[in-house]
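LOG
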Amino acid sequence: MNSLTGTGHLVRLALRRERAIAPWWILLIVTMALTMVAYINRNMGTYELKLAYIDIIRSNAFLQGLGGGFAEPRLEVLATWRSGGFLYVVSAFAAVMSVVRHTRGEEDAGRSELVRSAVVSRHAQLTAAMLVAVGNSLLGGLVTAVALIGIGLEPIGSLAYGAAVTVAGWVFAGIAAVAAQLARDARTATAIGLSLLAISFVMRYAGDASAQYWLKYLSPIGWSHLVQAYQDERWWMLGVSILAGAVLSAVAYQLLGHRDLGAGLLPERLGRATAPELRGPISLAWRLHRGLLVKWTAGIAFFAAAAAGLSPLGRDLLSRPSIVVDNIRNTLGVQPADAMLGAYSWYMILILAYAIALYPVLMTLRLRSEETSGRAEAVQATAVTRLRWAAGHLVVTGVGTTALMVVAGLVFGTLYSVLVGDLTTDMPRFLAGALGGVPAAWCVGAVCLLAYAMLPRASAAISWTVWILTAALGQVAGPLYGQWGGSPLEPFHYIPNPFATAPMDTRPILALLAVTAVLLGGGLLALRRRDFR
């Protein structure tokens, strides 16, 4: 038996599992690329408008760092400048999740031990995971390039852009492979991979925002930016990413030979012998969720502060008449010019609210994770009933979602008031507006709970679809495809705008709370009546 025996069978097994996941990642990448081209065409149709946009970018370090590189007043350059920073991250994120899922995730589930009992080599599972992740990244980049060529963009630049998307996934597939050997479980391996992705993005962003471009050469995400598609096409930067991915893969294979199945190379942290604070299902749920909530709180506070820091720039942009400004005014229901800045800043709060709506989705999926791991069954072997167990998680999820909205409103409102507003009037309005988004976020989580209770095997796919559709149909993503004001099919459409001139109507909030209560009740009833799987 050689070192790759059984790899083909495991590749086919992994592809069978990926068929419900990988196409959505590829579709997301291609859609983002095409959407940005359409957005630039729609809102910056002339050379003068593109040039004015370039001047705005170059005058603000935050915007300069957002897209990365040097923007030019050309359609293809502006479109890739707007989307490239996100496409590279999405490709890398998908690669990390895929490799961890088919390596450390399989070991956690006990399937690796079953597979190893057949005629399968030690390296076959890691090789299969890497081949699938590399193939997905290649397909995502290739389809993106073909789609851009198909709408008339320059072929050479499109191929370079697609290749940059591909190699971002390859590098982080290697990083995830190493993380899977170091960590003892899939959660830790994922945390390592995504933490390095975040560090890589921050380094790239800092390099572009501060003009310290040497930082980009230290960032794997920065390497994809340095390809400079549609400009001078620095093909040699692709070789840097490919070489780094190959070295990381070789390191992963070496580490694999120095650990036992189910074990990691990093030492485990010993826990306490007793836990007197675990007095019931709510305290148990808090113990499980508090780490993630702390990370979310820090992230929301950071992005809220960054968004509020754009308020002076927003004031300058909104003082210039344009179609975009008129659309924002009509969408948010604000007509007086002096209220326009506050209304536009409320748009920033909406962006944070859509992001926070992902938190209850993830917390609901945690219920499924607890069920499949057997931990939920062990808890319910005690005096804790199934409804109490689920209710404990829901209480912590609801409180955590509210806390995140409060953090978003307080941080954004306070900094906005200090920079361009009035602390006594603006900050309370932003806080009240953020709290108004809580019922909408709860409603998204309630839909996910109902999906988990009725269709547990499909709950992950349904939950992600619900959040993606909520964001895609909303008031933030809608303008990208000409749908100003969003769609009435998503719950954030009904939350009140504290800066609107019309009086605030509380009936939509009460209706959202009623719908959420019905969904939660139906979900808990369905969960009580079905068997655990």
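LOG (cont.) second protein
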Amino acid sequence: MNVTNEATALLQLAYDLWTARSEFRRDRRRNKRYTYGRQWEDPVTVDGRVMTEAQYIQSFGNVPLTNNLIRRLVRSVLGVFRSRGRQPVCHSLLEADRCRAELLTKLLHTNAHTNRLDELYARSMEEFLISGCVVHRKWYGRRAGHIGCWTDSVDPESFFMDVSATDCRAWDMRAVGQLHDLPLEDIVAAFATDYTSEARLRDIYAGCTGDSWYMAQWGAGDTEKAFLSPSSPSLCRVIEVWRRENDTYWLCHDTDTGECRRIECEDYESIMTENRRRVREGRGTLDCRRVNTHRWRYYYLSPNGVVLTSGDSPYRRFGHPYVVKAYPYIDGEVHSFVADIIDQQRYTNCLVTLNDWMMRASAKGVLLFPEDALGRGMSLEDVADQWSRFNGVIPYRPRPGVPLPQQVSGSVGNLGITELLSVQMKMLEDISGVNAALQGRLDSGSVSGTLFSQQTQNSLTSLLDILESFDTFVLDAACRDAENICCFGVPTVPGSDTIGDGYFDNFSYDIHFQNPLPCHEEK
């Protein structure tokens, strides 16, 4: 195993970036719990003991009640997103390239169908509402026997990126990566080129099917994925890192042949020697110009700091395969749609639970039976048994000065809980921007169709920012697909030849949405 200083530095870089997103992962897990109904699991400390809010309530013999309003709001926004029906299309910047633009549009739609992007984008939108961040990975290769351009949804829990980046378009990122948990056989199939490299890989991951050294050292918690240990003892951890690195070289123009070529810096002295020789021979020299730029490189690392493979990025335009959208990403901060309404959801649950406590604590059909009035041979257990029967008979012995048996039923006092619940429901709609009209509900039966449409439109206006922000992510993803198609080509049918090399060379195009016609317009 060859562990170099560069590999160790890369591993440390990935660890630092992953650790810097610990607050985001914690907030995401909390938002997800509230979205799917587990809303009493925030930790509380009572007498030095840490427990969940649900456990604290249950310790008093009560039941924590949940009225999940967040899930309904999320489903409403998802319904709006699905109903928009917007598809990215390609437009050529030159009239002569119209045919190539139409073909690329068809290939994009075919690729979307192959990857089931309609469903994937809906689930990604749900993730976007919950966590405020969505990540896709675009790659070219073989899957299920077919070669093509593929899209993978990346779990934000295993994703890390440059925390110093503040551009909402993610154009200033210098490092990005992902943690993979794979079976050892998949790692061997991906990185082994011969029997020697296979034996090397098996040696690196020796013991990964059980308690390996890094699991014993770092552990694997139930709620926080350890950086070096896989989620399951039967899997192996691979750390994928993409880094933007400085790239300095000499661009040389051969005045004899007119050829331009790249010369590495370490070969510059040989170029000077060649120029001196050409001067003596009376030939044209090599005109050189120093070029300083950047390039993306990828590294796949094992948990013990061994570079499994590395190389220059095959993606010409974007550098790395990830499409990232974080919202709103002001000063690098992520704030989700769900996080804005958690406080209202908590207060609603508290009011519902408090009302339940009061109802359970109030007297409901309690029988007050004087012990001195018990009939001969009767016990209080017999009285309770007869009282619960619809045709029960309870003999009792009246005595002077002893009150008659009587039933007591108490009512919950009006503490304004109903009014407070109404206020919280209204605040929830105001903060989220999802009003009753957008959810398909009428506040009253006398609302006109025009007013209902206007209320729906107003609600859509308040959600327009988050919807348009996700549309930007969809456009960026479509641009990646188009770039991969132009760069690598795609099969027209499984097993057939790809589009000819160079067909999309020097093709200037733009990707944007083709909006559907409004319902009142006729083509």
